[in-house]
Amino acid sequence: MGAAMLSALVDAPLPLPAWDLPVPARQTLRDREVDVWVVPLPLPEAVEATLAATMNFEEWERAGRFIGADKRRQFIAGRGMLRLLLGGYLGLPPSQVRLDTRGQGKPVLADDPSLGFNLSHTDGLLVIALAAGLEVGVDVERVRPVDNAPALASRYFSARECAVMEASPRGFLRLWTCRESVVKAFGTGVSAGWENLHIVERSRETADAVCEDRPCHVRMFTPQPGYVAALAGLGTGFHLRPARHVDFTQVTHH
Ligand SMILES: CC(C)(COP(=O)(O)OP(=O)(O)OC[C@H]1O[C@@H](n2cnc3c(N)ncnc32)[C@H](O)[C@@H]1OP(=O)(O)O)[C@@H](O)C(=O)NCCC(=O)NCCS
Asked: Phi and psi dihedrals of 79, rounded to 5?
């Protein structure tokens, strides 16, 4: 295919998904308010195909590089749902949402940095957070036995964190998701100075974190039975609206 034809295809208006998802408008999110969307995976194939059609060329290329079908489907579901939701909040067709990356690969909106967002996928679940005027990070894990938990804990967690950590897979994964969500809020990825990140649990649901002298607030939640998740927001606090669960077997497709 010639470059001109390829470019015409990529620029062409893409078919728009029009499910009856109750996506609120951007204006309904007050400053430092966060919406969390929970989506069971895998998506039905027809839904996945429609969402895939909203991805840009670079995302198609990335999807094509996954060797395993499960990871490829996870990526498509994540990017497709992200585009659908961001488009809904911003009043844009999903294919016209312009994404950029910052720092160590954190996706951001190219045209509206005041709408923060982040996503996390794991075996069977996708979680997407959208926030007004706030940098957020989210992480979700399926609760399962973690063979090398003690070794991972002593490598990544501080002595104080290890001392207070509940000795169970859930306890380990709660702290793990907390740390990951903070790293994702900062957008630093693996290059973060782990020794400079400290998590202090305040209650079963809340924790405060300090990373290189910058504060971050964390909310832990159960997005669905059998999973643990954490949402981190830079600064000292935020308001989490009730989680929105998407079930594509229940929504109408026009
Ligand atoms: C970037 C990173 C945080 C992703 O975490 P993960 O658990 O592998 O995967 P998740 O599904 O939770 O998140 C992946 C999504 O986060 C987003 N993301 C990618 N890089 C990111 C970054 N630097 N900051 C924030 N978000 C990022 C992307 O949307 C990505 O999904 P996509 O590629 O499908 O669009 C991870 O690669 C990383 O660097 N982790 C730190 C590793 C570590 O040492 N952990 C110890 C924890 S105590």
From this structure: -65, -40
